[in-house]
Every structure is written in structure tokens, then in C-alpha cells.
From TrEMBL:
Pfam family, one: DUF4283
Record protein name field: DUF4283 domain-containing protein
Database matches in InterPro entries: At4g02000-like (IPR040256), DUF4283 (IPR025558)
High-level lineage: Eukaryota, Viridiplantae, Streptophyta, Embryophyta, Tracheophyta
Species annotation: Dipteronia sinensis
DUF4283 domain segment(s): 15-88
Length: 151
């Protein structure tokens, strides 16, 4: 069969769609019921432009957003879970080959409690946080609740 070149407009449309896509994997040994998962995630996220959720394979799903704001709202709003299983996201690149996605990291907010006053600063907060993983962000406010002070 002869090789064919895709129309540039079709390729550009695919690139735009891929830029608004994230792929998620529900980390559980049980097979997720696709219809229920899609229904629940649409209700939980309630993004302004909506999201198209397409099952890929097993517990892996593609999420196509209509705008960057909705995509970032979901990525920043996590961690997300379904039926007591964490959902790990990855952003496809290049042609969007899902087999290249790793699903090997997730962001969590961490609170560090019972620090002496001398340790309530950004440098020590980042240093302590880096002991358990990569520190992506830091909240500079010191919070006090019933359990004491924490960063």
C-alpha cells in the first residue's frame, strides 16, 4: 500500500486536542466499571467546558478538556481517587503514545507538625519536604490548629 500524508489541518486539530488531554490510570487490581467511572468523574469535576472521558485499556482513561483552565483545575485539584483507589495522571507528548506514559508520580500536600519555632521557615520546610520527595510548592504561612503549629 502506498504511504499517505495527513492533511496539515487534521494534524493541527489532533495536536490541539492532545494539548488539552491528560491520561489517568486508576491504581487498583480490580477492573474499574467504565460507565460508572466516567459518570462519577464528570459529576465530581464539574469543569466549565466539560470533559470527554474515553476508556483506553484496563483502568487507563484519556480525559479531553475544552480549555487549558479546566485541565489545570483538575491537575491542581488532586490527588483524585475512585472507589478508594488513587488516580495517577500523565500528560501525553509527541504523538500521544500511551505506552510511553509512566504513571509513576503524584503530587500531595504534606503538613509537617510539632516543629520548634526556630524551624518554622521556608528553607527548613523545603529541606524536610525534600526528604520524602520533590518539593514543587511551599506555603509560607505557619498554621496553628488544635494539634499545634505546622508548615
Amino acid at each position: 500500500m502506498p504511504a499517505h500524508t495527513l492533511d496539515a489541518n487534521l494534524t493541527n486539530k489532533g495536536k490541539k486536542r492532545l494539548a488539552l488531554c491528560i491520561v489517568g490510570k486508576v491504581l487498583t487490581s480490580k477492573l474499574v466499571k467504565k460507565d460508572i467511572f466516567i459518570d462519577v468523574m464528570n459529576k465530581v469535576w464539574r469543569v466549565s467546558g466539560g470533559v470527554d472521558i474515553e476508556p483506553i485499556k484496563g483502568n487507563v482513561f484519556a480525559f479531553y478538556f475544552s480549555n487549558e483552565e479546566d485541565k489545570m483545575l483538575v491537575l491542581r485539584g488532586g490527588p483524585w481517587s475512585f472507589d478508594r483507589a488513587i488516580i495517577v495522571f500523565d500528560e501525553p507528548t509527541g504523538t500521544g503514545d500511551v505506552s510511553n506514559l509512566k504513571f509513576n508520580s503524584i503530587d500531595f500536600w504534606v503538613q509537617i507538625h510539632n516543629l520548634p519555632l526556630i524551624c518554622l521557615n521556608e528553607e527548613i520546610g523545603i529541606s524536610l519536604g525534600s526528604l520524602i520527595g520533590e518539593v514543587r510548592d511551599y506555603d509560607p504561612s505557619v498554621t496553628v490548629d488544635g494539634s499545634g503549629r505546622y508548615l
